[in-house]
Design goal:
Pfam families: MMR_HSR1 (PF01926). The chain has about 300 residues and is α/β, with parallel strands linked by helices. About 50% of the residues lie in helices and about 15% in strands. The termini are far apart.
Amino acid sequence: MSNSHPQTVRLKELNPGDIIILAVGPTGSGKSSFVSRASGIGDDIVGHELVSKTSEIMAVKYTDEESGQDIVLVDTPGLSNTSKDDSEVLNMFTEWSRKLKKRGLVIAGILYFHRISDNRIGTNPLRALCVFGEPCGGLNAAFSKTILTLTMWDEVDEAIGDKRLAELKSITYWRVVLKFMDDVETARELVREVIRNSGGQRQGPMSNQTMVPTDRESSRLELVKNLETLAERQLAILRKIGEESRNISDSNAPALRELEREYEQLRLQMDEAWELCIYGQSQKASPSVPYSRKLRRLFPR
């Protein structure tokens, strides 16, 4: 069935009953193509992120005829690994998220796009998830609502792609791992997966469990809790960087450079926390250092 009347909308045109789905990930990972295929809106309207870091957050709304739900697909600029691009994009995310929460709107699902042709997930998704935590219902909820969406299958040998898929599914961080084959069928399957789970809170791998957690699970829960504090510090510095940048002068240039250094330190902490979260150890830390000690080093009391 075709989707009815897809159109771009502003945030103030969204309603509490809308199923809001974010497409998040690095530039060129297939976010815009997904929005185009799932909604039926033209590629020329969505664009393809050639200038991602300077583009705006764009929402496309349509009525899904299969479910009867009003769906809002949100195409977001790509994150990079540099503090300058982070500050631009994350400030944009923060403002959009703040307005979303102010209107009482809730994010139903987050699709994190990753090219299967890449060996590792290079861009840290925690930076985006921490920003969107509040309108998801908290950071734990943001984790549990996130689906790892694998793209660019035509760029890898089938055997290599299947091996990487199995490896990513084995990482307990991801609640669901699905393919996007740059077609309508898999795009709408991603939307249906969010719809199926938007009515109730399915427990994610990072959520509190009714059973007694293992030492590793307890450490991961502690990590998620402390990440919220780290994210608050990071966003506060981003706001200060934005304010200083708007009023740049010789007198406040040293203060701006100091803020940028502090932000960079926090960014590196977030990257290490991400590796602890999914791999159980940081790639930069010695494997002999106990997991709990690494947490204490990252998040001193």
